[in-house]
Amino acid sequence: MNRKVKEVADLVGISVRTLHHYDEIGLLKPDAVSESGYRLYSPANLDMLQQILFFKELGFPLKQIHEIITDPTFNRTEALILQKNMLIEKRSRLDQMIVTINKTIQYEKGAIEMNEKERFKGLGFSHNPYEEEARKRWGNQRVDEANEKVQSFSQEEQQSISNEWESIYTHLASLRDLSPSSTEAQKAIATWYQFLNENFGTYSLEAFKGLGEMYVQDERFTTNIDRYGKGLAKFMNEAMSVFAEAKKQ
Question: What residues does the HTH merR-type domain cover (predicted)?
């Protein structure tokens, strides 16, 4: 049974305008149009819309979602399994943040003691515990340049960078069962390399490769990165090494 755009919007709980936008950018084109010019969405269209909304909930930008679902190798069942695992991991991170918030409320009331580490548990990469190690590996100048650049960002820019960071890591986590040298993995790692260079100073290929090695050599990195998906740190290390060596040739 085909459904008109308003029916789909009411069924799913999104706006007609959103569906029109998805059509205009080629993300979700209805399979048919009525003689009166109404968009008609097929059951297959609804299946794809479900996938799009799952990816969107996980923080994927629309452009990236389009690339994923139009890839000839895209498999709906595999995608659903990955999305389920990613949502479970996201829920785990949110649960940890809720625990931290509840403890902080009790701390503010004077009911419990709470150290600084406990107050930031589950809050990701905003607080960087790895600066000392970074200074040892790449020197003070590189780290100071990165810190200066970050401090120059407005609050809106910082939020945008944080969102993009999460999106990149989430996407990489969805690929971690592939070969690190696969086209998909290398494309995602190239995005990570570009993101670092655009926002945190200039990374040489050697420094990028060294960063990947730190992901598995320093358990603090490994623990934080693997919150997005078990084995992600190892996958990124190998993919970053392949990327750096390929670009040197």
Answer: 1-71
